Amino acid sequence: MQLHRKGHCVLIVLITVFTAGSLSAPMKVKLHDSATLSCSGRCSGLVRWTEFSNRTDVLAECDQTSCRSVKEGYQMIYDQYLKGNLSLIITDADFSKRGSYTSDCDGEDLCDVKLKIELVQDSWIWKTTYEKGKSDGYQTGVQFGALAVGVASLFIMFGVFFLGVVAAPWVHPQMDSCVQMPRSNDSSYRSQCKEKERGQMFI
After folding, report:
1. pLDDT, average across residues 78-82
2. Angle between helices 187-202 and 168-184 (to 10 degrees)
3. How far apart are CA 56 and CA 169, in angstroms?
4. Residue 200's CB: how many other CB atoms inside 10 A?
5. Over the stretch 167-199, which tens digit does the pLDDT of each residue have?
6. Per-residue pLDDT tens digits for 81-133
7. Which helix (H) or strand (E) holds 180?
8. Which residues contact 42 (CB under 8 A, 6 or more apart)?
9. How far apart are CA 39 and CA 89, in angstroms?
10. 75 close to 104: Cβ distance less than 8 angstroms
11. How far, in Å, CA of 112 to CA of 126, rounded?
12. Which domains does the chain have, with CATH numbers?
């Protein structure tokens, strides 16, 4: 019974060591830089790189005769393959390419590598985007300002038109009455008015 338990412990240790040896530290690259997923070993047959989540979709492969880029943006170097360098090169690492990759030799697993994309804020991509955003914001502000001035001008013109055409016939008599009211309290003005009335009566 104790031997059986010891055998299980040894098996668990061997599996842990094998798994730790096949997994490498995550590969970190900047956005749109090239990434090299390191893998070394000897393979006399066919080496293939695939995404860990899709083992049937081959990205690049090598055998004793040549290397082939099965999918655009992924490649292996034949000279390096002959030397035991089975690394996969990703020419343009964007966000669609982040994730876990795995390689195998004739179906036997070799290396598992996880790719992470780093976005640096002071990169030219951020700078270009920021400057474009500032420019677009300034242009939008100018457009809204011009629109506001135009609307205000229309309201002023409409007000002037209303006072000059619509309200003038009503305002003018009111102004005359306002002028005449103070004069009606003046004795000389009243006497002049009476003289005019008498003259009109004689005529």
Report:
1. 96
2. 100
3. 90
4. 8
5. 556 555 555 554 455 555 556 656 665 665 565
6. 999 999 999 999 999 999 999 999 999 999 999 999 998 765 555 556 556 56
7. helix 168-184
8. 84
9. 11
10. no
11. 31
12. 23-118 (2.60.40.10)
Q: Quote the distance between the C-alpha of residue 179 and its chain's center.
A: 69
Tell me the torsion sign for CA atoms 89, 95, 97, 101.
positive
One-letter identity of residue 145:
G
Q: Is a pLDDT exceeding 60 seen at residue 1?
A: no
Mean pLDDT, residues 58-67 taken together: 97
Q: Tokens 């655009």 — which residue?
A: 72
Tokens of 128: 């270009």
Residues in the chain: 203
Which phi and psi (to 5°) does residue 151 adopt?
-65, -40
SS (H, E, C) 6-41: HHHHHHHHHHHHHHHHHECCCEEEECCCCEEECCEC
H or E element at residue 105 = strand 99-105
User: For the residues 53-79, what does the mean pLDDT come to?
Assistant: 97
Q: Cα separation of 191 and 138, whole Å?
A: 71
